[in-house]
Amino acid sequence: MSAIADFSTYKVISPIRSALEDDTQVTVLWLDGRTSPYHLLWLRDNCPCSRCVYSVTREQVVEILDIPEDIQAARVTLTDDGNLDILWQDGHASTYDAGWLRAHAYDEESLAERERLKPKKRLWGSSLAVPAFHYTDIMA
To answer: Which of 90, 117, 119, 134 is the most buried (most CB within 10 A)?
Structure first.
């Protein structure tokens, strides 16, 4: 079973060096020097486990309103394969793929990086010439 809550796969741009936790967030320190904070409520809402996400459709089955606003992590560790593990105070356990975390980081540097990497839009504008043909010419 995939530890990712959607059908995409995510390349690990940089491995996680360490993770620090406080009362409101987990801050991931990446090997390339980037620092990405993730709010605890956001992390719990994005838990990819089979109790939180229906495995066939990847539909989220836990509602954010059912998660306590003041949710706390009991333990934050890294797995042997470099992912983020959180044991929540209510006993629930979540594992977050490092590539997924980086792709969904919402710190300013990560948002700017994603904006730079987005494919540039190319509008049709008036330079697009759609060919026109006469019916009788085509039928002949």
So the answer is: 90
Cβ neighbour number for residue 36 with a 10 Å cutoff: 20
Structure tokens at 25: 């967030």
Neighbours of 16 (CB within 10 A): 20
β-pairing, 84-88 with 93-96? antiparallel
Q: Is 51 exposed, middle or buried (0-12, 13-18, 19+ CB in 10 A)?
A: exposed
Torsion angle (degrees, nearest 10) of CA 113, 114, 117, 120 = -130
In this prediction, residue 130 carries a pLDDT of: 77
Among residues 82, 108, 104, the alpha carbon closest in space to that of 95 is found at: 82
Query: Cα separation of 37 and 24, whole Å?
Result: 10
pLDDT average, residue stretch 24-53? 95
Winning range, highest mean pLDDT, from 57-61, 92-96, 110-114 = 92-96
- For the residues of 56-114, what is the DSSP string, one character each? TT--B-S-GGGS-TT--EEEEEE-TTS-EEEEETTS-EEEE-HHHHHHT--SHHHHHHH
The answer to whether the beta carbons of residues 24 and 39 sit under 8 Å apart is yes
